[in-house]
Design a protein that fits this description.
The structure holds two protein chains of two kinds. Chain A is of the alpha/beta class. Helix content of chain A is about 40%, strand content about 10%. Chain A has a five-stranded parallel beta sheet, with helices on both faces. In chain A, strand 4, helix 9 and strand 5 form a beta-alpha-beta unit. In chain A, helix 1 packs across helix 4 and helix 1 runs antiparallel to helix 10. The longest helix of chain A is centred in the N-terminal third of the chain and has 22 residues. In chain B, strand 3, helix 5 and strand 4 form a beta-alpha-beta unit. Classes of the chains: A alpha/beta, B alpha/beta. Chains A and B meet through loops of A and helix 2 and helix 11 of B. The structure holds thiamine diphosphate. Thiamine diphosphate sits at the interface of chains A and B.
């Protein structure tokens, strides 16, 4: 059975997070399209997970006993591909082809195109259900892997999320399915409170989940929240990470305009400087 | 394809058409599902905030709400991407919109149709939406070729009481029509006369068909070009006349060759004047790329349409 890399120090995780942020900004700039905002907000969650908790072996991406990370908010591919590359699933050189003709790095994930990509995505609201399928199969086959599903808070508008949220406790899959919500408060059209107000902690609690909240950019807090989510409980666990869309780049932070927009040349230079200086 | 100075995206016509309908006295209410900055619905919302709602990322809920509004007499417009509308809410469209009272007055305007959505890749590229929309019994289905045509088509469906599906596109495309153009629901536009073959196209493929006709003319082949913007109900008369007068028909669409324009035209001809046909479309799932690169990648080119024409002509008896 594959194991996680733990323990990786918080300082080391922070250094990795900086590299991921730089990749995100460069990829979206190079492609002149893509989704930087919801990629930058997810970085600490993704890094703490992939380096300290996820039981995987990038050299053996199809191991039936691997933990699954399922990116339900499929537009966050800059984040996802950068994490997979830095974690060793494929060369960081491939990141340059993001969104270009002939590259396997499509705008939204295509699961047969790249090692480590667990689910084809792009249509929001489907990841938790997909994870339930993996988890049921895992139980039938006597395997112990977990499925970690990352959702956006705008994505929680989709009814299917709640169909799945009620099925996880019903099927008793709390030790197999763990949800992660990137609570950045912004969706495509603007601030979530104006587009469609939700209350993720209360909603998941209402469906019988244990809710673990954390500052999604405090690496130690994120790491601790993921550890808590791994601890057995009668209830399935959801980590609601309070995050800032565009985190780490001043002009993208909390700016709905950078949900799905590429920076200019001058902006990308400023962004890379800010990331290097560790605004995040 | 080069972009003319007058290039505009067909999706940009949406708010203009809605505003025109309101000004003409149509009781329009419009809903978006967290894509209004892309469908351009937000521009209607800025002008008439009391007539515009956003429901978040919840296409199924959007359809249900629109059905309720329509049942109370409103002309309810809903907008999203063509992969999600009708894809994500097909059952709601069927049960809550298409079936009640022979069809409630709900108009779907789905942007980012076809593969020219570009870099977002396979999951965002709608090549099934026309098959789904045409299968909803009372629906009119329209795929306009340029901004002007899109604006007039949306106004035209807005004036009926039937449900409708209008597919618009993401990229800026050159104008096909001038200011004297008049869109008529259910009627094809003859863009070029010809006697050897007819090229029937909709959406971005209208320009490709015009360029293909040019290529064919260079070889002495006279091709008629029809803009069949209304895929349903398809203009039977124009199709039958084309078959009678040119003896071969090619359809070209930014969609699968099943369930869209080609299927509609073939059905008419199978029942009336069977002639050799060829079908140009997209029968596989794609990848990311710039929209014009993808037209080449998927072989939605004038050269392919011309080749299909030669092939259909070769089967004439
Ligand atoms: C079913 C569906 N409807 C609409 C979209 C278009 N879309 C892409 S991202 C997005 C907003 C998502 O917001 P959120 O989940 O909060 O993502 P984040 O802010 O983390 O990027 C929308 C509406 C989609 N991808 N899928």
């Amino acid at each position: 059975m594959p194991t996680s890399l733990a323990p990786v120090s918080i300082d080391e995780l922070k250094a990795i997070a900086k590299r991921i942020r730089a990749h995100i900004v460069e990829m979206v700039y190079e492609a002149q399209s893509g989704h930087p905002g919801g990629s930058l907000s997810a970085v600490e969650l993704g890094v703490a997970l992939y380096w300290n908790h996820l039981r995987v072996d990038p050299a053996n991406p199809d191991d039936p006993d691997r933990d699954r990370f399922i990116l339900s908010k499929g537009h966050a591919t800059p984040f996802y591909y950068a994490v997979l590359a830095e974690r060793g699933y494929f060369s960081t050189e491939l990141l340059k082809g993001f969104r270009k003709l002939g590259s396997p790095l499509q705008g939204h994930p295509s699961m047969k195109a790249l090692p480590g990509v667990e689910m084809s995505g792009g249509s929001l609201g489907q990841g938790l259900s997909f994870a339930i399928g993996h988890a049921l199969a895992g139980r039938l086959e006597g395997r112990e892997f977990r499925c970690w599903v990352m959702l956006g808070d705008g994505e929680l508008n989709e009814g299917q999320v709640w169909e799945a949220a009620m099925a996880v406790p019903h099927f008793g899959l709390g030790e197999r399915v763990i949800a992660l919500v990137d609570r950045n408060g912004i969706q495509n059209d603007g601030f979530a409170d104006q587009i469609m107000r939700t209350n993720p902690p209360a909603m998941f609690a209402g469906f019988g989940w244990k809710v673990i909240e954390c500052d999604g950019h405090d690496m130690a807090a994120v790491d601790a929240a993921l550890a808590e989510a791994e601890r057995p409980d009668e209830r399935p666990r959801v980590v609601v990470a309070h995050t800032v869309k565009g985190k780490g780049v001043s002009f993208m932070e909390n700016n709905p305009g950078f949900h799905g927009k590429a920076p200019t040349r001058e902006q990308v230079e400023l962004a890379l400087t800010e990331i290097a200086e560790g605004l995040a | 394809m080069t972009q003319a100075a007058s290039a505009a995206a067909t999706r940009e016509a949406y708010p203009y058409a809605l505003i025109e309908l309101v000004e003409q006295g149509v009781d329009v209410v419009a809903i978006d599902a967290d894509l209004s900055v892309s469908t351009m619905g937000y521009q209607f919302g800025e002008k008439y905030p009391e007539r515009w709602y956003t429901v978040g990322v919840a296409e199924q809920n959007m359809v249900g709400i629109a059905a309720g509004l329509a049942a109370c007499g409103k002309t309810a417009f809903i907008a999203s991407f063509a992969v999600f509308l009708p894809g994500r809410c097909f059952d709601q469209l069927r049960t809550s919109v298409a079936q009640p009272r022979g069809g409630l007055n709900v108009k779907c305007v789905a942007s980012h149709g076809g593969i020219t959505v570009g870099e977002d890749g396979m999951s965002a590229q709608a090549i099934e939406d026309l098959a789904l929309a045409t299968s909803l019994v009372p629906f009119d289905v329209v795929v306009p070729a340029d901004f002007e045509s899109a604006k007039q088509a949306i106004v035209a469906v807005g004036k009926t009481t039937r449900p409708a599906y209008v597919r618009t596109g993401r990229p800026k495309v050159p104008a096909v029509y001038g200011p004297d153009y008049r869109f008529e629901l259910g009627k094809a536009t003859v863009l070029r006369t010809g006697t050897d073959v007819t090229l029937v196209a909709c959406g971005v493929m209208v320009r490709a068909a015009l360029e293909a006709a040019e290529l064919l003319a260079g070889e002495g082949v006279s091709a008629r070009v029809l803009d069949m913007a209304t895929v349903k109900p398809v203009d039977r008369e124009s199709v039958i006349a084309a078959a009678r007068e040119t003896g071969a028909v090619v359809t070209a669409e930014e969609h699968q060759t099943t369930g869209g324009l080609g299927t509609a035209v073939a059905r008419v001809l199978a029942e009336t004047v069977p002639v050799p046909m060829s079908f140009v479309g997209v029968d596989r799932y794609g990848t990311s790329g710039k929209w014009d690169e993808l037209l080449t990648y998927f072989d939605l080119t004038p050269a392919r349409v011309a080749a299909a024409a030669r092939e259909a002509i070769s089967r004439k008896r």
